[in-house]
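Hi W.,

Here's what went into the run:
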Amino acid sequence: MMRFTLERRADPSRLALLLAPLAAVAFTLLACMLLVAWAGAPVGRTYALLFEGAFGSRFALSETLTRATPLMLTGLACAVAFRARLYNIGAEGQLYLGALAAVAVGGMHGGSSFELPMPLLFAGMIAAAALAGAVLLLVPALLKTRLGVDEVVTTLLGNFVVLLFVSMMLDGPMKDPMGMGWPQSVALDGALELGKLLARTRAHTGLLWAVGLAVGLWLVQRYTVFGFQMRSVGANAQAARFLGLPVQRVTLCVAMLSGALAGLAGAIEVAGRTSYVTLDMSPGYGYAGVVVAMLAGLHPLGVLAASLFVAGMQVGADSMSRAVAVPNYIADVIVAVALLAMLVATLFAQYRLRRNP
Amino acid sequence: MTQPPIALRLSGITKRFGSLLANDAISLALAQGEVLALLGENGAGKSTLVSILFGHYVADAGRIEVFGQPLPPGRPDAALAAGIGMVHQHFTLADNMTVLDNVMVGTEPLWRPASRRRQARARLAELGRRFGLAADPDARVGTLSVGEKQRVEILKALYRGARVLILDEPTAVLTPQESQALFATLREFVAQGLAVIFISHKLDEVMAVSQRVAVLRQGRLVAERATAGTSAAELAELMVGRKVVMPRADAAEPAAQASPVVRLAQVCVNAPRGGVPLLCGIDLTVHTHEIVAVAGVAGNGQQALVSLLTGLRQPSEGAIRLGPESAPAPSTPAGWTAAGVGRVPEDRHHEGVIGDNPVWENAIVEDLGDRRFARWGLLRARAGREHARELARRFDVRAASLDVRTRSLSGGNMQKLVLGRALAREPRLIVADQPTWGLDVGAVAYVREQLLAARARGAGILLVSEDLEEIFALADRIAVLCAGRLVAVRPVAQWTPAGVGLAMTGSAATETP
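Here's what came out:
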């Protein structure tokens, strides 16, 4: 009988870790060809349409970038938290609460005597969104550090609580009087909206925020004491504690950072794209952030590339499905398979398969 | 004298793990009625060899014969059926079952409607009588002492008809008295015609119990000797490949003006969920220029004591004071480091270093508050690497580079890194928990040398160890911990190994030397 065992590589090569996501994506696209063929569509043309719809024209590219922007922020939120082994599955809720806070600051002052210079109001809107997300994640983080409550459960379930709260606000105090009864919030002050990145498209300067934050986070992880502490707590909390690192404080700080990033995703969606909060403003950006972070190998710069891939597949599949008889769910399948392939690829980068004859 | 029949023959056993040649064409024969000691440092290939023998691994080349029959590779069940019994270092017993259940489990066919407990009980009693291995068949294994559990493991192997018994580092967990009892049992075995392979890296035990010694080094069989025709010194040299002088404390050395570096007064640590306290009524002082060794069987409160003295835990009662000025002890690990305490944890992989981080980061991880290595919240990588390079040079840490993951270092190099990190700050107090555990002889000598050098500089050292040989080689005073209490604290001259062994079992509190 042949048996296989996995042996941990003591020092996995950087190249292998870098190639792992590329191999995973390549495998995914190959594997999904079978599904396309099964749906009875011409494989080559379908893939061509998929990529053309994602990156093939100025419009396609702008749509992909628009979609990738919130994914980058939620992806960063997850990557940062996961790196410190804080499993934040609540980016969806943090995004909605951040969006709500942004509108509360930047849209509710109309008619009142409350006046602030626009740059200050903009800063206030951003700060409110970040703070809302941060405080929302601080609760599960405190429960984890103080009482040992599993944060996966609390953050995941918290999402539903937040969505119901948002729904309540949209039908209550924050309901848009001009909304003709639709459950949507009052609109953001037009002067607070983000500028366009490309004329006559939806792509907005929120993308620059996301890229800047990714670079910033990468620098923090690499060059600061906080980044060192965060990596260490994530790699081995027991040793970190023995070696005198403030494990609880690091976990709480990481929670604030992660929540703030996801909250910011909400504010930037509102200011860059939707102008008001609705209950369907996020097609699961928070959950997709988990996928993005994993595909990126938790690397902040990798998050940028992974977001473009995930957004590209979703946008491309929408346009592809209009031309050939492949449902746009293929995007979800591709993303899901890519996640699984990435997990396997990372495993092989870190472990070596041995055959016991 | 006629040659006794061969029980086990290994020919040309070779096993590779990647680029590592774990076993290189090893050929050995074991006669009935003999104890063969398999001697070698950690990593010499002893465990690989017996794992192949027992079917856990499959050799790349070579064959095994048991009583003349070839043994099919890779099948533990075949090894069992051929009469090979294995007693692992870490017991494979179910704590919540009785001795009889543990012995019987897996020996009865599943479709037998009623288990034949009466016969099993009789057979167990018979085996116990025959080999002098008393065990209460109805006792729960969880309530037994470590020595008793080992006896159950041996009975389990005998019950399955083992005629070749392999014992992997069997004395690592035993008190000296329990070890002596085990040796008596092994002599009984061979007198009745069983064959025993005894794996160890402790020379005195090998000399005491075996008839023949096979020495492994770096995967190769480097020597076979009749025990009667060799000496511990020769075996040590064969095992290491060069002469090693184990450093020992010089009894005349202690300085006159000793002052206390740490003082524990009536310290208790309660168990987290109530019950028997982990530590109780501990009074202990460590002075400058001295090594105080804490002896004890594992699990008698050493862990709690070390976590108290490394800042991981606070005393439930009593007080700990540091230095001649009797400053109250800090309450965090970082505080202890800042107070000038060098800490060497028992588990270097899980506490001593962060394996995924590069070597240089682990060299400065305790010094992040130091302005040399971090300023304005930014890491000063260049200074950190410089410090790590200096540390590696001074303490002989061999790493491919300072940027490789620390996980990839060998145990000895990792321990040198941990020790060097602690010693480089010239601590007044060093807390070392099993600092030589699992290291090869060369690294053991190095660690001992460094601890003695620190003592000569004036440091006070609290050494927790389960190795009596080490304790007697290094300590100025020996404290024995048993069931969370210090049984006795006396200068080393007033102890004998047997006395320490008795005190470890709690039976010698009244004994006076």
